[in-house]
Specification:
Penicillin-binding protein 2a (Domain 2), Beta-lactamase
């Protein structure tokens, strides 16, 4: 018998596999067909959805309080209507503008000729097309191969050929539509843009809210404006905020965009609002928008809740600030009634805690003429942005520099008699004869300071002979003054602080002598406040600051949140002087205010708060707004006063500066009158509050 052949089983198994694959593919094809037929439209819509870039919605800024908890800058809520440009077509945007115009009134003052022309072309496409001939289009097409350039040139021709009569046919309703469309088109994609936020009535809010489904991209919300309960008090220091129309300032656009701002965000434009922008701006609400292929928003999701900015608590006491401003205003007006005051138009006062640098008051007023009437403007910023020759108030620094260099020592006697360098005579307001350092401060001797600075320079003085000094001697004096904050930035937490002007002529010996009595270089009133605070506290130059605390926001009106950051006192430097030397100058300053021959005795003696002070009168040249009226330089007198109280353990330091106070021989004493009343007001307010407690 022959062997039987074995059956081959491999082909059978392959057939089974092929059949199984066939079944699976059939099932998949059936399933795909089912999905396409039954759910095709739904899945198509889902695929057309896109998750766009997260949108940041702005929030109200932080509030600003004074040192007693009074609100200085608040947020005033107001109705607003917004539009979010999702990239829809121009036609759809115009349809929405026309629909919204039926529900709200819109100011048309900002509608331009170009806006009207764009609207007319959009509403009359066939007529607009006919404004450019076929031959002209052919010529343009040959010249501009790029389609965008071609369309732009055609559009320019259309604009130029729209006659006035066509635009005159536009009705007031048309103009309102144009004004609304103008706002729509000026917004940035997927960023809510304010269409109207002024005088939005409750009725307008209600009817727009009811019709949001038919107003694609439109929404109702709450906007805010900065509110100032104290009016113009301290207005220049508080600064300003850009409007939603202004948005980010052009000069800082890249900076803000790099920090996540939107182009139409409102930001601080000046001073405190600008300086503390990072604190006040708040945390934006982050929203993710889903849009369909037509650019319509189909859904939103809040990713992060928004929170308004942190609050600032200032060191400034607004009740005291207002009182000081009233004093300045009254004294300015009173002094203007006296002779020789044609140039007088401003005065400044700073009150500071000499131990911490807290700026308790920063006041300035300026008289301006408008429509033939004299008005008063806030000029608090003048304390840091303008500088003047300040006169003898700097003599405390001169004496201490003399001690430190060994030029003089406590008790050194110098004969106060006329100093003559070549043909130039320099002297004090009266000849005092032999005097020591205390008397020199008390009676404000110029000659004592002249002799001191000549000794500092190592110059050999002979009456009537030339004097040899060099540029290094000027540098020595200026470096010494800088220890007190004179001639350098004080470090105050405000932008645009000026340092003053340093005289450039170092070849004239008399100019060095002038520095020693405050009549060559110029200083700001804030520098004077830092200088007198340094002497008052025993030698520490404190950094002045307007802001005292940063606090978290709370919802309750008038309530302060938890402290986020506290501005601690900062010592910038300690002057090079022995404690007994500083005490010696402090004694001299006390004598200025409390000894019968002191230059401030008439105004500051007998006070329960025991002040110390130094007066100043500087011969200067007028360089104010009226200078163009005169062919020659006009000589004027600047008045100043620095003080602190009590003379033992001082709690407040004061600087008063009255530029161009008078010309001629009649001293109106505006510096002393203002200074006395300001110190009285400070201690009266303190006593009143203690009584209330």
């Amino acid at each position: 018998m022959g062997n039987k052949k074995k059956k081959k089983t491999i082909p059978i198994r392959l057939n089974i596999i092929f059949f199984a694959v066939f079944l699976l593919f059939s099932a998949l094809i059936l399933r795909l067909g089912f999905v396409q037929i039954v759910y095709g439209d739904e899945y198509k819509r889902e695929l057309e959805k896109t998750e766009d870039v997260t949108v940041d919605t702005s929030v109200p800024r932080g509030k600003i309080y004074d040192s007693t908890g009074e609100v200085i800058v608040d947020n005033l809520a107001k109705n607003a209507i917004t539009y979010t440009n999702t990239g829809v077509s121009t036609e759809k945007m115009m349809e929405t503008a026309e629909a919204l115009a039926k529900y709200i009134s819109k100011d048309t003052k900002k509608v331009t000729e170009r806006d009207k022309q764009d609207y007319w072309i959009l509403k009359h496409p066939e007529e607009a097309e006919a404004l450019v001939t076929k031959d002209e289009k052919a010529a343009l097409a040959e010249k501009h191969t790029d389609s965008d350039e071609y369309n732009s040139e055609v559009y320019k021709l259309q604009l130029n050929r729209i006659k006035e009569d066509k635009l005159k046919s536009l009705t007031n309703d048309d103009l309102e539509v144009i004004a609304i469309y103008r706002e729509f088109s000026s917004g940035y994609k997927l960023t809510p843009h304010i269409v109207k936020n002024t005088k939005v009535t409750n009725e307008e809010m209600a009817v727009v809210s009811e019709n949001l489904d038919s107003l694609k991209g439109v929404d109702t919300t709450t906007d805010w404006d900065r509110q100032y309960p104290f009016g113009n008090t301290l207005a220049s220091v508080l600064g300003s905020v850009s409007s939603s129309e202004e948005g980010l300032p052009a000069e800082s656009l890249d900076y803000y965009l790099s920090k996540g701002y939107s182009r139409n965000d409102r930001v601080g434009k000046s001073y405190l609002e600008l300086q503390y922008e990072d604190v006040l701006k708040g945390q934006k609400e982050k929203v993710r928008n889903e849009t369909n292929s037509d650019g319509e928003i189909t859904g939103t999701e809040v990713i992060t809740e928004g929170k308004r900015g942190n609050d600032l608590v200032l060191a400034i006491d607004m009740e005291l600030q207002q009182t000081v401003e009233d004093i300045i205003e009254k004294q300015l007006k009173s002094a203007k009634q006296m002779s020789g005051t044609k140039f007088l138009d401003r005065a400044y006062v700073v009150l500071m805690d000499p131990n911490t640098g807290d700026v308790l008051t920063m006041a300035g007023k300026r008289l301006v003429s408008e429509d033939g009437k004299t008005k008063v403007q806030d000029d608090a910023l003048g304390n840091i942005t303008t500088s003047y020759n300040v006169g003898s108030v700097v003599k405390g620094a001169t004496v201490l520099t003399g001690y430190n260099t060994g030029a003089i020592s406590p008790g050194t006697v110098i004969n106060d008699t006329t100093v003559k360098i070549g043909d130039t005579e320099k002297k004090s307001w009266t000849q005092m004869g032999p005097i020591n350092d205390l008397t020199a401060l008390m009676r404000s001797s110029n000659v004592y300071m002249f002799q001191t600075v000549m000794r500092i320079a190592g110059a050999h003085y002979v009456y009537g002979q030339p004097l040899s000094v060099d540029a290094e001697d000027f540098t020595t004096m200026r470096n010494a003054y800088a220890q007190y904050g004179l001639g350098i930035r004080t470090g105050i937490d405000l932008p645009n602080e000026q340092t003053g002007f340093k005289g450039t002529d170092t070849s004239v010996p008399g100019k060095l002598l002038d520095i020693a009595i405050g009549q060559y270089d110029t200083y700001t009133n804030m520098q004077l406040a830092q200088y007198i605070s340094t002497i008052a506290n025993g030698g520490n130059r404190m950094e002045p600051h307007i802001v005292k605390e940063i606090r978290s926001p709370v919802s309750e009106d008038g309530e302060l949140g938890a402290v986020v950051d506290s501005i601690e006192p900062k010592v910038l430097n300690t002057i090079e002087a022995k404690p007994e030397w500083i005490e010696r100058v402090q004694t001299g300053f006390k004598m200025v205010a409390q000894s019968p021959k002191g230059t401030a005795y008439t105004y500051l003696s007998g006070k329960s708060y025991s002040p110390a002070a130094k007066t100043g009168t500087a011969e200067a040249f007028y360089d104010g707004p009226q200078k163009s009226n005169y062919k020659t330089l006009q000589e004027v007198m600047n008045l100043s006063l620095v003080s602190y109280a009590p003379s033992e353990n001082p709690e407040v330091a004061m600087a008063v500066l009255v530029p161009w106070a008078y010309n001629g021989s009649v001293d109106n004493k505006a510096n002393l009158k203002i200074g006395e009343q300001v110190l009285d007001a400070y201690f009266d307010l303190k006593k009143e509050r203690q009584k209330d407690k």
